[in-house]
Design goal:
One of its GO terms (cellular component) is membrane. The chain has 156 residues and is mostly helical. Helix content is 79%, strand content 0%. The chain has five helices and no strands. The mean pLDDT is 78.
């Protein structure tokens, strides 16, 4: 389980770097909002890593356990794409922010499917993924509103 948690903390460190470095859009001052978001992202990554470990350990005990692990891997892949999109949205002009919104919306859909599919395998993994899904819904709303306020609706 420690490698999963180390990966979660490493992803959070990348997120912090992108938030506070010039590469990520300028050295933003630390604020309560930034610190809360950082803690929530770290908690999200740790919950996701723990759920992944639970799914991995139970994959051979259930008939569709391996399929749920594949769904989980897709979800993790979308997390990586979302992180790259986050960096690109800070560095590139529109329509990249809309791409970031679409990526996180797709991640929410994948997270919902994985959460439901994992319910009967290890229920604890499904509960953890449900908590991650709730956080991703909040982030999706924030990303969408931010894109609308900054760039307007993507309708010509």
């Amino acid at each position: 389980m420690l490698p999963f948690i180390a990966l979660a903390v490493a992803l959070s460190a990348v997120r912090l770097f992108l938030t506070f470095s010039p590469l990520g859009g300028g050295a933003a001052p630390a604020s309560t909002q930034t610190l809360v978001f950082t803690v929530l992202w770290i908690a999200s990554y740790v919950a996701e890593a723990t759920a992944g470990r639970l799914l991995w350990r139970s994959r051979s005990r259930h008939t569709y356990g391996r399929a749920v692990v594949v769904l989980f891997r897709i979800q993790i892949g979308l997390q990586v794409v979302r992180l790259v999109n986050f960096m690109a949205a800070r560095l590139l002009p529109p329509p990249v922010p809309w791409s970031a919104f679409a990526t996180i919306a797709l991640l929410v859909a994948a997270g919902a499917v994985t959460t439901v599919a994992a319910w009967s395998i290890p229920r604890a993994a499904s509960v953890l993924l449900g908590a991650v899904l709730a956080w991703l819904l909040v982030v999706t709303a924030i990303t969408g509103v931010d894109a609308i306020l900054r760039y307007g609706l993507p309708i010509s």
